[in-house]
Design goal:
Blueprint lengths: L2 H11 L4 H4 L6 H8 L7 H10 L4 H28 L3 H12 L5 H15 L6 H11 L9 H14 L2 H15 L8 H20 L7 H8 L8 H15 L2 H13 L3 H4 L5
Length: 269
Amino acid sequence: MGINAALKKARQSRGLTQEQFVAGILSPAHYSKIERGLHDISAKDLMAILQQNKISFAEFFKQNMISQADDENSLGDQLQIAYYNQDLNQVRKLVTKIQQLPHHDLLKIKAKLIFTLLEGKRKFDVKDKNIILQRLFSGDNWLQDEFSLDLLANFGASIFTHDDFTFFFQKIFTTYNDKMSEQTEKMQTTIATICVNYLYTCAENKFVKDNKEPIYLLGQLSQTPSLVLYKIIGHFYQCYFAGDTEQVLAIKKLIKASNLENILSILPE
């Protein structure tokens, strides 16, 4: 939300006309153009309007920043959905919008990596790998940092070798074992995605001995509807590594009948 829209919202919430809202500061005609985004407002006039209408400076700018963050988070959510749907055209459009954001460098990194992955013209190079490594090790608390874990969830299986991925997963398992249900739903989703992708690499590389811990973490997820699918996938891999072909086929049939064909692409044959 821009300052013009935030001013309009503040005025309307107080039931004031434009003339009343800027009395003695600006002409109604000039202010009308500010609300419509046709003119910028000076810092001096903005402060005068806020002070005259007893609007807290801190609260006004805090709300404006939150709204801006909400806009950026919305783009991030749209990007994730387009990635899930393998919609390269939509990702391309969103990447253009995201690159125009004044800040949010982390979202720009994610957008670039997603576009690279979907474009399929080249594999991730050393520079891409270094971007994630730099982010993971840029602070002491990467294991609690949602964005670092989100990068690992989305791109770890594509960029790192199984041994590298195992190193990161072991750190995650040690941190979150028996503590999954205490995490936020978003954090549980991110960790569950890491578990599912790690299990896929285990199956792809036939590393049967490495599968018990991610399956165990998936079993610890909260009984939240949005997390049920991850639990089902955890059960799928448990059956897969146990050689229970009948159950494997039954779970795949359930997933397909639920119109979740995209999920089948991340499950081994």
